[in-house]
Amino acid sequence: MSVDVECFCCKELETGKHVIEGNCVCHSKDFTSVCLDESVLKTAYTMLIHVRGYRDRRNTLAFDNRKFRWIAYQQFTYYIYQHLGKKVRKVIPSCVVQAIRERYPESDGTYTGFRNSSEIQAALNGS
């Protein structure tokens, strides 16, 4: 984890404690199914496009590890918090990020990390 705000345990989650089985949410059968399974992630992505109106900027249904990570992070957020609302972002526990990155690694080992809404808007605006 590259940012201090990203370094926290799943036991410190503000909500969703009911989904943590044992010592870590990553050991949960539900976590593996909901956040790491390729078929589930592909289905979730299709729902984002067709049901929620999400637009794929790359305009493709091709899946790579980057897209799988993004969908997995979305799935975890829905799994724990349900819907957060537009521009509402939550940091994902480091154990979850690590599990997702191990399952869907970036070839060069470089990852973006957490960005709040204002950082994303600045990047989109070229600031």
Question: Which keywords apply here?
Answer:
0% strand; 127 residues; mainly alpha; 45% helix
Overview of the molecule:
- It is built from five helices and no strands.
- The chain is an all-alpha fold and 127 residues long.
- Helix 1 (29-36) packs across helix 3 (65-81), helix 2 packs across helix 3 (65-81) and helix 3 runs antiparallel to helix 4.
Topology of helices and strands:
Elements: H1 29-36, H2 38-50, H3 65-81, H4 94-103, H5 117-125
Helix pairs in contact: 1-3, 2-3, 3-4
N- to C-terminal separation? 24 Å
Rounded to an integer in angstroms, the radius of gyration calculated over CA atoms is 15 Å
**Into which percentage range does the β-strand content fall?**
under 5%
Average pLDDT, all residues: 76
Low-pLDDT stretches are: 120-124
User: What characterizes the major β-sheet?
Assistant: none
Helix-strand category? mainly alpha
Q: Globular, elongated, flat, extended or rod-shaped: what is the shape?
A: globular
Number of helices: 5
Helix content: 40-55%
Note the run of SSEs as H and E. HHHHH
Strand segment tally: 0
Give a summary of the structure in a few sentences:
With 127 residues, the protein is mainly α. It contains five helices and no strands. The longest helix has 17 residues, at 65-81.
